[in-house]
Amino acid sequence: MALTYGTDEWEQAYVAEVAERQKAPRPYIAFSPEWIGLYEKAVQEDALYKEAAATWEGSVVLHVLAAPEVGIDEDLYLFMDLWHGDCRSMRLVPKEAGEAGDFVITGSMERWLQVSRKQLDTVKGMMQGKLKLKGDLPTIVRAVKAASRLVDIVADMDSIYPDELTPEQIEELRGWIVPLREKFGV
Amino acid sequence: MVTYLVGALLVALGGIAIVLIIASSKAEVGSGGTGELDVTMAEGVEDNGMAVMLAEMIKTNLTNKPERVKDFNKLKGTVWITAEDADVEMTMDFNKGSLTVRDGKVGKPILAISTDSATLMDLANIDIKFGMPYYFDETGMMVIKKLLKRELKIKGLLTHTIALTYMTKIMSVK
After folding, report:
1. Is A129's CB within 8 Å of B60's CB?
2. For residue B126, with 0-12 CB atoms within 10 Å meaning exposed, 13-18 middle and 19 or more buried, which class applies?
3. Per residue of chain A (186 residues), what is the pLDDT tens digit?
4. Distance from CA of B102 to the nearest CA of A (A)
5. Could you give the ipTM of this predicted complex?
6. Domains present along chain A, CATH in parentheses
């Protein structure tokens, strides 16, 4: 039975899971909990982001649509709790929590990987309809520099992208992601 | 040379701003109001991310800043916008209190704006001070420089200045 999101138990178990998974050698697979843990730390330590997001208030959720071809059989929701230049946490969260984020940006795995590789600018992606934004648009437009910085940080990270995985690695990913979803309800 | 041109353009914009403030204050008598916001998305526009975004931005802006509804109510004419890097274009038909948003280029625009996606965001970040677009801060200066470098092209800049001012005000998220 899944732990209840929002409880201390869930939070402690998630943090422990990330710590355990981060014992594996780097780089990590993009959007995995261990990779998200590194991303969280990178944002927390980034002076440029702190400056650009000094007035930012609200959570941002990256909604990655299911991509069975790379082992992601259900949608993923990466919840970023951002406040006045600080990144309070980044977590994979259950769908209901993800959908309730202040700003939800939705795209296919292919689009998010293009963004991560800096092949697709986030604003351009939204204008082309490749990424969809739900939330107060003027607020995010005012913070466009902070959003760009979040993407730049991802691009600077050493990552294994899901579309680079071999068929065996994809099956291995399925092997750990299913129990992870069951445990955390994500 | 560029500094001189920026200076000259700022002085010109300052002059236009003064004229517009006077015109606007006169026009306000008997006009303005905060009637129903009539924004229609034409068929086929739903896949145009830029059109959906800008329409949504205008609606949210006018809801959050009802004092700008009077600018929306005065604007009449067709505006065409293209984000060249994204290869997306849209048309907005303003008709004194109503807006129809269409995919592509439709009709004869009084304002034609061509630039890249990032600059469109800069345009949306132009500050509004004393009821007028403000070009004397970092974002405003950047927009002026892009105009001079032809990275931002606005057809109708001089012939439909008042329409451009209304447009800037209702688009601005500041």
Report:
1. no
2. buried
3. 799 999 999 999 999 999 999 999 999 999 999 999 999 999 999 999 999 999 999 999 999 999 999 999 999 999 999 999 999 999 999 999 999 999 999 999 999 999 999 999 989 999 999 999 999 989 988 898 898 899 889 989 999 999 999 999 999 999 999 999 999 999
4. 14
5. 0.81
6. 8-184 (3.30.1050.10)
